Amino acid sequence: MLDLFTDDTRRNPFSLYAEMRAKAPVLHVPPLDLWMIFDYEGVKRALHDHDTWSSIVTTQTGPTPDWLVFSDPPRHTLLRNIIQRAFTPRSIANLEPRIRELSRELVDGVIERGEMDLVKDYAEPLPTMVIAEMIGIPVADRPRFVRWSEIILNLSYTMSGGEAATRAVAEHAALKEEMHAYVDDLCTARKKAPKGDLLTRLVEAEVDGERLTGEEILGFFQLLLVAGTETTTNLLGNTILSFFEHPDELARLEADPARLLPTTIEEVLRYRTPVSMVFRAAKRDVMIHGQTIPAGKFVLLLMGSANRDPKQFQDPDTFDVGRDPNPHIAFGHGIHFCLGASLSRLEAKVAIPDLLSRLRGLAPASDAPWQPRKALHVHGPARLPVRFEPGKQLAVAI
């Protein structure tokens, strides 16, 4: 049976992706009764055509959470319009000075040591702190925030079934009650005393007389815990992994950072897609590449494979920091295009130069294969030990 979820395959799924695109771009996996789509054309079509493909999915362990990403029009349209009022480009751009401060503080915490776990010491805490502050979570509650995120990410095991899936659903059900009480308290406090945070904007946002319900705010809160942190964590870890494997491309970036930093970020998103697969369900029988996917069936769209499709990208297995154009679909496509894409790009724009300029001689600290992230639908390292030349803290924050 095809198994995408072994550690070896999750570290390097790309040869398997290439084989499947060539032999079976649409594949049925009978033991799990799910379908997979591997090629760019098929994946992009499914992401775009919400009249044919539903984001409301039922796995072996039951329906997916009641979140924005697992909704269809017209409800999706209403929710997204309301949330966009709170998640504005200006509010994202205004975060840049604070992201720079947080990045500097994290590097200051390790720079004198000459070694660190790049994921645990930097790539995880940076987006977590940014999202926590953006939402308006008190500093003292951040450990709880991290625990919640880990439990929610474990829902990815519902796609593979078995004991891990059952346990993940049970843990999430218990967590939801805890989070419901917490978010209700925060919303009540914001109604009484509004602040300049995302939670206040969500409580106050209104479109055509409609506001978000408490359940809808909770759903978006849960989604932010995952989408607002995991994508950036993997983007940063995958950037450093790519440079370790391709030092000549790092030299290119360092020789012309103003021009190549934006294209570098997009190439990492394509080359090592952080969220490598998403769920859909066929609303009706769908013919694609000569295969008929029956109505109601659970489908995995392999964006990590689509972004390596040679029919769309020249030399797709080459890491090219100057690649342009680069029409990757790492953030999705169509009505479900990631609301947090601009935030993730901004965090990478700050973090990558900060890491490369301050951690001189950055190199792997271990020859052991890197351990994949726990969530099955993402691609990136759970740990990344690195060494560098010890430096000094920067006494004055930006």
How many domains, as an integer?
A: 1
Identify the quaternary structure here.
single chain
Looking at the overall shape, the CATH architecture is: Orthogonal Bundle
Category by helix and strand content: alpha+beta
Structural write-up:
The protein is an alpha+beta fold and 398 residues long. It has one domain (7-387): Orthogonal Bundle (Cytochrome p450). The chain is built from 17 helices and 12 strands. It has a 5-stranded mixed β-sheet with strand order 1-2-10-7-3. A 3-stranded antiparallel β-sheet has the order 6-12-11. A hairpin with a 2-residue loop joins strand 8 (286-288) and strand 9. Helix 10 crosses helix 12. The longest helix is centred in the middle third of the chain and has 31 residues, at 162-192. The protein is globular and about 60 Å long. The mean pLDDT is 90.
List keywords for this structure.
398 residues, alpha+beta, Cytochrome p450, 5-stranded mixed β-sheet, 3-stranded antiparallel β-sheet, 17 helices, globular
